[in-house]
Specification:
This protein is mainly alpha-helical and about 160 residues long. It has helices at about 10-20, 25-30, 35-50, 55-70, 75-80, 85-95, 100-115, 120-135, 140. Helix 2 packs antiparallel against helix 3.
Length: about 160
């Protein structure tokens, strides 16, 4: 029986096969598995050189995933900053999605609230707060059917 030696690079590849990871995230997972800092850094450097580990690809996958779950640019930006992702990469990827935020807000709004407008002002404000907590700003929310009134009237 052939015994395979478990290496930091092998474990990292197995983790990357499941989903994209940030370098910092992979580093932490490999530390938890008991690999030395030298072995981890060497493995991660090799993976980056081979194109298997990419911070920008991680950010794009993360942003896409969060949009699919109904989150807006502010929330996604905050989450990526909490994960210690480089600010320039966050800005670059979010800018690529600039034309999609309104559609994403409409899609999530319909999925969450349906087509029926809010019955009263309190319901309108509740929906608006919910959308803001999901990370959508007022510019994006202006076109949503939050109430029976004209869409811009209550948000101006």
């Amino acid at each position: 029986m052939v015994r395979q030696e478990i290496t930091a690079k092998g474990v990292a590849i197995a983790l990357l096969a499941r989903r994209e990871h940030a370098r910092r995230e992979l580093k932490a997972k490999l530390h938890l598995r008991g690999f030395s800092t030298v072995a981890i850094e060497g493995a991660l450097d090799e993976l980056e050189a081979e194109g298997l580990l990419s911070e920008i690809r991680y950010v794009k996958a993360y942003v896409h995933s969060r949009i699919e779950r109904g989150y807006g640019p502010r929330r996604i930006h905050l989450e990526l900053r909490q994960r210690k992702v480089d600010e320039k990469e966050i800005q670059r990827v979010l800018a690529e999605y600039a034309d999609h935020w309104e559609d994403a807000a409409h899609t999530y709004y319909r999925r969450r609230f349906g087509e029926k407008p809010a019955a009263d002002f309190n319901e309108h404000m509740k929906r608006l707060r919910h959308m803001q907590q999901r990370g959508f700003d007022m510019e994006i929310l202006r076109g949503l059917p939050l109430s029976d009134e004209r869409p811009d009237a209550a948000l101006s």
